[in-house]
Amino acid sequence: MQQQSLSFLAVITVFASAHVATARDLRNVTEPKNPQSCISLKASGKDDTKIIQKAFDSCTKGKAVALSSGIFYSGPLTIPSGVSLLVEEGVTLRALTDPTLYDLGAKTCGTIDEYGLGCKAFITMHKAKGSGIYGKGTIDGRGGSIMTGHNITWWHLARDAVVVRKNQNNPRLIQINNSVDITIYQITLTNSPFYHLVATETVGFTVWGIKIIAPASALNTDGIDPVGSQNVTIAHCNISTGDDDVAIKALTAPAKHISVLNNHFHRGVGMSIGSECTYGVSDVFISGLTINDTHNGIYIKSNTLRGGHVTNITYENVCITNATSPIHLETNYYHYNGTNTPVYRNITISNVKILTNGTSIIHGLDKSHLIEITLKNVHIPKDSKFSIRNAKITGNFIRDVNGGQCGYAGNINM
Ligand SMILES: *[C@@H]1O[C@H](CO)[C@@H](O)[C@H](O)[C@H]1NC(C)=O
Ligand SMILES: *[C@@H]1O[C@H](CO)[C@@H](O)[C@H](O)[C@H]1NC(C)=O
Ligand SMILES: *[C@@H]1O[C@H](CO)[C@@H](O)[C@H](O)[C@H]1NC(C)=O
Ligand SMILES: *[C@@H]1O[C@H](CO)[C@@H](O)[C@H](O)[C@H]1NC(C)=O
Ligand SMILES: *[C@@H]1O[C@H](CO)[C@@H](O)[C@H](O)[C@H]1NC(C)=O
Ligand SMILES: *[C@@H]1O[C@H](CO)[C@@H](O)[C@H](O)[C@H]1NC(C)=O
Ligand SMILES: *[C@@H]1O[C@H](CO)[C@@H](O)[C@H](O)[C@H]1NC(C)=O
Ligand SMILES: *[C@@H]1O[C@H](CO)[C@@H](O)[C@H](O)[C@H]1NC(C)=O
Ligand SMILES: *[C@@H]1O[C@H](CO)[C@@H](O)[C@H](O)[C@H]1NC(C)=O
Ligand SMILES: *[C@@H]1O[C@H](CO)[C@@H](O)[C@H](O)[C@H]1NC(C)=O
Ligand SMILES: *[C@@H]1O[C@H](CO)[C@@H](O)[C@H](O)[C@H]1NC(C)=O
């Protein structure tokens, strides 16, 4: 008898770990370690682009170019495959603010047009394997500085673009494309003119213990955007931005096997999936998250232009304060119309505490495309408001919250 129940328990344990095992980063990710450096550079106080790029190009694979003292000024840089950047504590790498340095050839960088694709990023990795950015220093995109040769800042340009319903051509801070096993560790990223950290079609992307800081008013300053990437872990990060703190997208390829663990978001738009879901977002595990002072908390956004399947998404141990829409699942984002149906299915939200009033929104597309979510142990204040249509909700909101404060990584301090 005794033996039987033990083996029954063992079976349950195996199922339980297999269950979690497939719907997250499939790698076993541990805290990264800084690589050894191939060279140590001191800032000259002038334009150091050529010196840094030359150091990258002659660095042995597996090692890092260390920026070891001062404030470096640089134009766009490319980190080669296998090589890393190490910005030591107290050191800052600042982006030069001349749009012509970032221009991709059409002379549109620093201007407004229909596309917003005229600039290269400040730091690019393309088809890299085993590269990274490390160190307790800072990379500053200077989005709030006047562009050289212009009379406004990058962020001001972004606001002007909204007024005329077009797009600003601003550089992203870090763009990683078609790469493998990329690590971003401990660094502080600040004031990007556009998105801070984007990994497109990258497999094996670890972001651990970084800080991202930009003003809440700076448009399009997304924190971390994995786009069509797989085996992604974002852990122990503090993010405060003017747009999506994290946004998982599937614009040109599926986004799957993604873990977002023990993070803290302050200001910005929230923990987002979308709006580009075209190739499908699946097997995402979000655990241990504090969200404070944001527009949305748990946010999935798409529409029939950028739609696709969003499935097998688990949120657990999330604490949300002062979010306008603590839970926001939207299938008609900006009312864009197209022929891609957004389908949100098998979304589980468990052990969540929402500590302040807000209006949660759950809007499925239509009667034949219901949003399917399961709620387990989701606590909200009794005066919380809702707008719900075309949704199949399993479980209930528990209206018993009365005060309290969110601590770090989803913990609650009562
Ligand atoms: C991760 O660790 C578990 C437990 O040690 C092990 O069973 C599994 O094979 C590992 N997975 C990978 C991809 O290394
Ligand atoms: C993700 O990681 C797992 C475990 O290391 C590996 O088996 C799988 O091939 C990886 N996924 C991709 C798309 O490479
Ligand atoms: C900036 O320069 C433009 C012409 O390039 C001018 O029209 C505009 O008034 C100037 N704005 C400010 C704030 O000086
Ligand atoms: C990286 O990918 C983005 C999105 O597909 C693209 O706009 C950009 O041009 C690519 N950059 C490089 C250096 O290939
Ligand atoms: C994030 O904030 C928490 C709480 O203030 C702190 O313990 C943690 O070290 C911070 N992490 C980073 C990467 O700044
Ligand atoms: C939440 O935001 C408020 C206002 O910005 C701040 O005072 C408070 O410390 C924040 N709490 C956490 C846990 O970050
Ligand atoms: C709540 O968030 C809004 C928008 O981010 C902010 O303006 C406001 O100061 C916050 N309120 C508190 C009490 O933190
Ligand atoms: C729902 O997603 C979870 C992981 O989030 C997965 O374990 C489960 O098998 C999925 N269920 C279905 C019916 O796909
Ligand atoms: C969702 O999870 C189930 C069970 O692991 C799996 O069979 C299914 O393929 C997953 N869905 C997607 C879109 O990956
Ligand atoms: C999409 O279609 C709806 C209904 O026909 C319409 O109200 C809306 O303006 C359209 N959106 C755009 C961006 O054209
Ligand atoms: C929620 O709103 C009600 C009425 O608008 C207010 O009395 C209550 O204090 C608010 N509760 C919280 C936790 O913000």
TrEMBL record:
What protein family does this chain belong to? Belongs to the glycosyl hydrolase 28 family.
Keyword Ribonucleoprotein in the entry? The reply is no
GO BP, one annotated term = carbohydrate metabolic process
Per UniProt, the keywords (alphabetical) are:
Glycosidase, Hydrolase, Signal
User: What protein is this chain from?
Assistant: Glycoside hydrolase family 28
Q: Which domain of life is it from?
A: Eukaryota
Entries under SUPFAM superfamilies matching the protein: Pectin lyase-like
Q: Which GO terms describe its molecular function?
A: polygalacturonase activity
Signal peptide start-end: 1-23
Q: Does the keyword Hydrolase apply?
A: yes
Q: Which organism is it from?
A: Extatosoma tiaratum (Giant prickly stick insect)
Q: Name one Pfam family in it.
A: Glyco_hydro_28
